[in-house]
Predict the structure.
Amino acid sequence: MRAVVSATEDLFKFILSDKGLRDEVVANIFDEKVQARETAESEGHAMLMRVVNGLKSFRHAVKLAPEVWTAMLIRMTVKPEAHKFTFDIISALLIHFSRKIPETFWICISRILHKLVKNYSHVDL
């Protein structure tokens, strides 16, 4: 299992590196221009299904040996590249679904964020 974790960590490091295809993968999954064409739409769906299946397999592997995978995930989350990648994914999801989410949802989120900022700006650290 340790060899699988090590290989997975190397793969994650490559994906997060400048040489990785990080931007290409995110763009292909969520780019509306690509999904406008019928063939590209089926390709985008197939890629999304591969990502979902990969995450399911990853979850199953973590259940089998949580101590090994947890250590690897902690090492990966400390890296600034992982933070940027997470932000890129969240941004792509928000851009993709922004037209499908009602405007009232965004107003509600804005109010919650303003309340959090107001409440925590008065807290002495």
